[in-house]
Design a protein that fits this description.
6 strands; about 280 residues; globular; 10 helices
Length: about 280
């Protein structure tokens, strides 16, 4: 994963360099100053508009952090990673890679019961992102030595600390990996062309919006179906179907929930067998 994070980091650094060069008037020759002023004016207007939208907190802030982290990971695999699938053999490697990544996500759940791991994680996080140390429950969670983030009857932490722990990981307790597993399931069973909408939490029109399902499938007979991951979303799915005339089904990944917040990190044998096929 270090290579993946390095690639993402280099992309952000590259974009920063482009901006830093153009926002510095010393980089422009005298006859090019008009280009600098045009850029600066638009940059200032952009900053004002984004501030009115509270745009930047959609990229990183405590309240929505677990969704933001999950979105970035889904972008890696389903926004850019699919470009790596140039052949059937590549698809097989991609499927295995996603399944191994799912196992990594499961591994993060060891912090629910390992206070040593959790403390190391919190300390490292505070070093890398200084403002996290100012969050209300940072120190309390870092020094907490009992179980956190488990079911109500199993956790030793108060509810607010459970929620704060959740905010530090990408859609934990299986949310992210269940979506990835459904994508692999749909892909392997060759239901048709799979359109991931995991990053499209709202489809916008000028006057309104609609919450789409997690996936759309274009079948071989040219029909379109929606697939929503997880139960208890019947109202959302029904509303989408009524407004679009696209039938939507719900898929629950109950067989992969054996390790959700598992204190002893039980391995999911079905996934491992799947991965070695």
């Amino acid at each position: 994963m270090k290579d993946v994070f390095k690639g993402m980091g280099n992309t952000l650094k590259h974009l920063e360099v482009v901006h830093e060069v153009f926002e510095n008037d010393e980089n422009f020759a005298p006859e090019e100053k008009s280009d600098y002023y045009i850029y600066k004016q638009n940059e200032e207007k952009l900053r004002e508009d984004l501030k009115k939208l509270s745009f930047c907190i959609q990229l990183y802030y405590e309240k929505g952090r677990q969704m933001i982290l999950a979105d970035f990971l889904e972008y890696i695999f389903l926004g850019r990673g699919y470009y790596s699938m140039k052949s059937r053999e590549d698809r097989d490697y991609f499927i295995k890679a996603v399944l191994h990544f799912v196992n990594l996500l499961m591994g993060y759940e060891a912090m629910t019961v390992s206070s040593k791991l959790r403390r190391k994680f919190m300390e490292k996080l505070g070093e890398k992102i200084k403002e996290i140390k100012d969050e209300e429950y940072y120190e309390e969670l870092k020094n907490f030595t009992m179980r956190v983030g488990l079911k109500k009857e199993e956790t030793d932490a108060p509810p607010y600390l459970d929620r704060y722990f959740d905010s530090l990981l990408p859609k934990t307790a299986g949310g992210l990996w269940h979506e990835l597993l459904v994508y692999i399931f749909l892909l392997r069973n060759n239901f048709g062309y799979i359109i991931p909408l995991l990053l499209s939490h709202r489809l916008m029109s000028l006057d309104g919006s609609i919450a789409p399902p997690d996936f759309l499938i274009i079948s071989d007979d040219k029909r379109i179906y929606g697939v929503e991951v997880g139960t208890k979303k019947e109202i959302q799915s029904g509303s989408f179907s009524l407004q679009t005339a696209i039938p939507t089904a719900t898929i629950d990944t109950i067989n992969s929930r054996a390790s959700d917040r598992c204190p002893y990190m039980q391995k999911v044998d079905t996934i491992l067998r799947f991965c070695n096929k």
